[in-house]
Amino acid sequence: MASDSEGTDDDLPSGRSSDSDDEARVLLFMRSGRDRELVAEAIGDRFRVEVTTDAAALESTFDCCVFGTGEFDRVAGAIEPRRERAAPAFLPFVLLAGDDASPAAAEAAWDHADDVVELPVRKRALRTRIGNLVERRHTSLRLAARERKLADTVDDLRLKERAMNEAPVGITIAESGDDGNPIVYARGSRRSPVTARRC
User: What is d(CA 111, CA 115) in angstroms, rounded to the nearest whole number?
Assistant: First the structure.
C-alpha cells in the first residue's frame, strides 16, 4: 500500500503549507482492512478524511473521493450523475488500483476516474496527487463563484441601463477630474436633446 517515505511541505502544490488543506474533505470509499488504514494514515495528516462504504455518502459534500477497486466497481455508475450535480465546479474521483485490479479494469476506470493510482504508492506521491486534484477543485469553486458574481453584475447593469433608457427625463453622467469633466453617458429626453460636451 502506501510506503513510509515522508514528504515535506515543499512538495505540496503551489508551495502551500499543509494547514491550507485542513478544510479539504476526502471521502475514502474503501472496505475496512489494512489497506484502508494505510491510505487514511497517509492522507489524514493533510486532509479531513471520512471513511465509508455507503453509496449514499456520495451525496454528501466532499472535495475528493478516493475509491478502492471493489467499491469503485460497485458505484461507478453513480459518479457521473454526482459530477453533474457539482457542475460547474470540478469534483475529482480517484481509483486506487491494487494488484487485484486487472489491467483492463484499470484502463476502463479512466471513463469515470480523474486519476488511477497504482498500488503500492509512496505516501508523498499519494498526498501530492490527491492534493493537486483538491487544489483544482478549489480553483474551480473560486471560478464558479466569480462567474456567478459576474453574471449578477451584468444583470444589475442591464437593469440600470433599461431604467435609464426608459426614464422620462434626460440623464448625463460626467467623469470627474481635471479634464473639464467630459460626459461619459448622455441620454436626452424626447423634449430636450443633449447638446453639451463638457460639464
Answer: 10
Cβ(194)–Cβ(187) below 8 Å: yes
Helix axes 123-165, 34-44, angle to 10 degrees: 60
Q: Which three cell numbers stand for residue 105?
A: 479494469
Report the alpha-carbon distance of residue 197 to residue 187 in Å, rounded: 12
pLDDT of residue 21: 56
124 alpha carbon, distance to own chain's centre: 22
Q: Which band of pLDDT confidence, cut at 50, 70 and 90, is reported for residue 142?
A: very high
Secondary structure, 3-state, the chain:
CEECCCCCHHHCHHHCCHHHHCCCEEEEECCCCHHHHHHHHHHHCCCEEEEECCHHHHHCCCCEEEEEHHHHHHHHHHHHHHHHHHCCCCCCEEEEECCCCCHHHHHHHHHCCCEEEECCEEHHHHHHHHHHHHHHHHHHHHHHHHHHHHHHHHHHHHHHHHHHHCCCCCEEEECCCCCCCEEEEEECCCCCCCCCCEC
Query: Among the listed ranges 21-35, 39-53, 154-168, which one has the minimum average pLDDT value?
Result: 154-168
pTM of the entire structure? Answer: 0.71
